[in-house]
Amino acid sequence: MAWNEPGGNNNDPWKNKGGRDQGPPDLDDVFKNLFGKFSKSTGGSGGSGKGVSSAGIGLVVGLIVVIWAVSGFYTIREAERGVVLRFGEYYTQVEPGLRWAPRFIDRVIPVDIQSIRDQSSSGSMLTEDENLVRVQMEMQFRVIDPYRWIYAVVEPEVSLSQALDSAIRYVVGHSKMDDVLTDGREETRQRVWQELQDIIEPYDMGVQIIDMNFKDARPPEEVKDAFDDAIAAQEDEQRFIREAEAYARELEPRARGRVNRMNEEAQAYKERVILQAEGEVARFEELLPQYEAAPQVTRQRIYLETMESVFSNTTKVMIDSEGGGNMMYLPLDKILERQGTQQTQDESRNALETLRNAATPDTPVTTTNRQSTRGDRFGRGGN
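C-alpha cells predicted for Protein HflK:
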C-alpha cells in the first residue's frame, strides 16, 4: 500500500519519525546541529545548539579556502595557449604546463594553436561568360594569435566561412567557365587564396591560411557529357604532347651523334686534303729545280708517270692509228687475269654465245675456229 493513499493511513517517511508526526528536517536545525558539534569538539558552550564558537567558524572558513585554492589548478596542453580573463577582461596569456588561477576571479580559455583546421564552402555560381558552375573549395588554416582569434570577431569560424564564400564567388564571377573547369583551376585556386587574404586582413583575426584545395568544379548536369568529352580531348592533347616530347628526347641524342660524326669526318677530310695539298706542293717544289735544268725531259717524265698512274686502273684497248692499226692491251696483268678467268665453264659459255651472235649466218663458228681467231688476234697484237 502506498504511503499517501487515502483512508487514514499516514505512512509518510518524513512524518511519525520517533513515534510523532513531524515534517521534513529544517535546514536551520541542521546547521545548528553542525555548529553545535564543532563547539563541543572545541570545548565551547554550544551543547544546546544555540551558540557557535569562533574556532568552529575559522575551521569552516579554512576548509573553504583550501577547497578554493585546490580548485584553482589547471593544465594547458602542449598544443594550446591559455587566454586569462580577470573579472571578464583580458589579462594575459599563459604557456603550456600546470598553472594556477584564483577561482571566481580569473577565467582561462585554452586555444589550440598547432592543429590545422579546415573550412569548406560550395555552391552554384555564375561565371563571367554567364554559365552556371558548381564549385567546392576547402581552406586549411591555423590560429597564430589566441587573443585575436577569440575577440577580433564574434564568431571567427562563421566569419571565415563567409569570407571564403565571398572570395570564391568573386573569383568565379570574374573567370570564364572553361578556365574554372579545365586548365585554369590552379590559377583560380591561387586567386581565391589571395582574395581571401585580402578579405580577412582588415579584421586581424589571428589566423594563418595554410593551403587552399580546389575539391570539385563541375558544370550543370544537362551539359556534363559535352564537358566530359572536352576534358577528355584536352587530356589526349596533353598525352600526345608528352609522347612527342619523349620521342624528341629519344631522337635528339641520335641526331647529335650523327652531327658529331659528320663533323669529325669533315674535320678528317679537311686535314687529309690539306696534307695532300702540302704534299703536292712539296713534290712540285722538288721538281722545280729539275724542270728548270731540263724542261723537256722533266715534262715528258711527268707525262709518263701520269699516264702510268691513269692506265694502272683501266682495262681499255688502245689502237695506234699512226703505227698501222696495231692493238695494244693495257695493262697486261689485267689481260692475264682475264684469260685465267675465261677458262671457267661459265665464262666459256658466255664467250661462245657472244661469238655466235657476232658471226654471219653463212659462216658457222666452232670452238676450233674461235681459238684460232683468238690466236691470230693475239699474234697480230704481239707484232
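The beta strands are 73-76, 80-86, 89-94, 97-100, 106-112, 117-126, 132-143, 207-218, 317-320, 326-329.
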